[in-house]
Design goal:
Transfers an acetyl group from acetyl-CoA to L-homoserine, forming acetyl-L-homoserine. The protein is built from ten helices and twelve strands. It folds into two domains: 264 residues, Class I glutamine amidotransferase (GATase) domain (Rossmann fold); 35 residues, no CATH class. By secondary structure, the protein is an alpha/beta fold.
């Protein structure tokens, strides 16, 4: 089944070029099916790239999904045209009275700042609080996961001795979880972050459980025991060249970054990286949508979130 997104969104042409079934709004409203309503709070500066990456993962399922994009009003985005934001993005004020089957909160390049110093922190707190009564299931990614653990459970992040950048091997702590159904016992996943959350801090909270970890970079997946909140500390949505683009960006900035681990063949940045995380990333999104959104959300969307 297709993903339903605005016809003129840049992601539409990209996804159609990959033979991904994107349904027009006209066709969607003439089907007698209630689609899943998924809201994406995109906090990344590279908004078009991020929205396309996430929609690519959402589209490869047998479910019809209607996607909406949201931005923070208290932060002025500078890496995307204002016309793009005005055309395709809503603010929290425009959606606060609505209910959603799913919400995705992305990462953001503010991880080395204290949470309270982020200029949109208060707005993000309002959104996370609203999600408890207006969203059936929320998926938090990277810094979004750290922010949610801090807000909902008081778990703080900590600075890593060096940036976790690369493709790392992971193992399942709870292989019986439907969230990781189909994943190999050992699998690869992308991380790109300067901060982390300690596994023992998550395990000390009875309402949380750890699903997957890396011996090199720590936590990868955790969730709430009521299956309403999911926390992914890496970037399963990343394209094959995203880490490469970040590495080249940092070189131009004079940061002298380390070469991403297990990414370039022979650690040679002139060689094209191979994508070894695509399958697990797709399974992760598909399992979340199927088992924790579609299978359990109320048919009457006004009841989503339990309000």
């Amino acid at each position: 089944m297709p993903i339903r997104i605005p016809d003129a969104l840049p992601a539409t042409e990209t996804l159609e070029g990959e033979n991904i079934f994107v349904m027009t709004e006209y066709r969607a409203i003439h089907q007698d099916i209630r689609p899943l309503h998924v809201l994406i709070l995109n906090l990344m500066p590279t908004k078009i790239a991020t929205e396309t990456q996430i929609m690519r993962k959402l589209s490869n399922t047998p479910l019809q999904i209607e996607v909406e994009l949201m931005r923070t009003k208290s932060h002025e985005a500078t890496h995307v045209a204002a016309s793009h934001l005005e055309t395709f993005y809503r603010t929290f004020d425009e959606v606060r009275d609505r209910h959603y089957d799913g919400l995705i909160i992305t990462g953001a390049p503010v991880e080395q700042m204290p949470f309270e110093e982020v200029d949109y922190w208060d707005e993000l707190c309002d959104i996370m609080e609203w999600s408890t009564t207006h969203v059936h299931s929320t998926l938090h990614i990277c810094w979004g996961a750290q922010a949610a653990l801090y807000y909902h459970y008081g778990i703080d992040k900590y600075d890593l001795p060096a940036k976790a950048s690369g493709v790392f091997q992971h193992r399942l702590i709870k292989p019986s979880s439907p969230l990781v159904r189909g994943l190999d016992d050992r699998f690869w996943a992308v991380h790109s972050r300067n901060t982390g959350v300690r596994r023992e801090d998550v395990e000390a909270v009875s309402e949380l459980e750890v699903i997957a970890v890396s011996d090199e970079v720590g936590l990868y997946i955790a969730k709430s025991t009521d299956s309403r909140r999911f926390f992914v500390f890496g970037h399963p949505e990343y394209d094959s060249d995203t880490l490469k683009l970040e590495y080249e960006r940092d070189i131009k900035r004079g940061i002298d970054p380390q070469i991403p681990v297990n990414y370039f063949p022979d650690d040679d940045p002139t060689k094209e990286p191979l994508n070894v995380w695509r399958a697990q990333a797709q399974l992760l999104y598909t399992n979340w949508l199927n088992y924790y959104v579609y299978q359990t959300t109320p048919y009457d969307i006004r009841k989503a979130g339990g309000q």
